[in-house]
Design a protein that fits this description.
mainly alpha, 3 helices, about 80% helix, elongated, oxidoreductase, transport
């Protein structure tokens, strides 16, 4: 049996990679993938604590988080398509002209 600390260490590493991607990338697709990494790190934590305490509540929250992530991707891809259609680039820093 793998101890829960290993899962938490994995989740912390995945979350740090996601935060690094959000803070350093200007490409909208990479930004979206980094947010997905952070959500998956939260799912790993939910499942690890569910395993440690022996109930299915964490797994249930993990399923809800996956549903939210799927909706976030659908909306994010739509925003990226509009960004590409207007600016011919997926760079999020070029969209500053869309402000009031």
């Amino acid at each position: 049996m793998v101890p829960a600390q290993w899962y938490l260490l994995l989740a912390a590493a995945v979350f740090c990679i996601g935060v690094f991607g959000v803070l350093t990338r200007s490409n909208a697709l990479m930004f979206l993938m980094s947010v997905e990494l952070m959500l998956n790190a939260a799912n790993i934590n939910f499942v690890a604590f569910s395993l440690q305490w022996g109930n299915v509540t964490g797994q249930t929250f993990g399923l809800f988080t996956m549903a939210i992530a799927a909706a976030e991707v659908a909306i994010g891809i739509g925003i990226i398509l509009v960004l590409y259609r207007n600016f011919r680039d997926t760079d999020v820093t070029s969209a500053t002209t869309m402000r009031w």
